[in-house]
Amino acid sequence: MRTIAKNKVKLQNHTRKLIHVIKSKLEKVRKESKHWKPILTGDNVYEKFEVHGHPTNHVVDIGKRLCTCQIWMLTGIPCVHACATFSRVNKQPEDFCHRWLTIESYRKTYNHHINPIPG
Ligand SMILES: [Zn+2]
Fold first, then answer.
1. Which of 38, 42, 101, 116 has a CA-to-CA distance to 59 between 20 and 30 Å?
2. Do the domain assignments include residue 11?
3. How far is the CA of 112 from the centre of ligand 1 (A)?
4. Could you tell me the distance, in angstroms and rounded to a whole number, from the CA of residue 106 to the centre of ligand 1?
5. What is the tally of structural domains in the chain?
6. How far is Cα 32 from Cα 71, in angstroms, rounded to an integer?
7. Superkingdom of this entry's organism (predicted)?
8. What is the distance in A from the centroid of ligand 1 to the CA of 52?
9. How far is the CA of 84 from the centre of ligand 1 (A)?
10. Residue 37 CA to ligand 1 centre (angstroms)
11. Dist. CA 17–CA 39, nearest whole Å
């Protein structure tokens, strides 16, 4: 009961989209993404890219939220290849994190309260 109440108060002041831990991880990934070079495949909606780098190349599909390295799909956080692609098309990686990692989902977790019991 105390934990729920404490976290509910903490969340009142948050205006960011992601929780702090996820935001830190995403910043680290974004810095590492500068070593990768996305190349547009020429699709009509500008969503498919081949991302070149070491040790191998990967394919990113922004529309399907997929990368062939599978990290984006498994963690819900865009991988270095996806972040490299986002910087190419001027999109924010925060908008492509899984909804479970957002402050809004965290708020829903602590949206309820436990009724006190006398005695
Ligand atoms: Zn990837």
1. 101
2. yes
3. 37
4. 26
5. 1
6. 14
7. Eukaryota
8. 11
9. 9
10. 12
11. 29
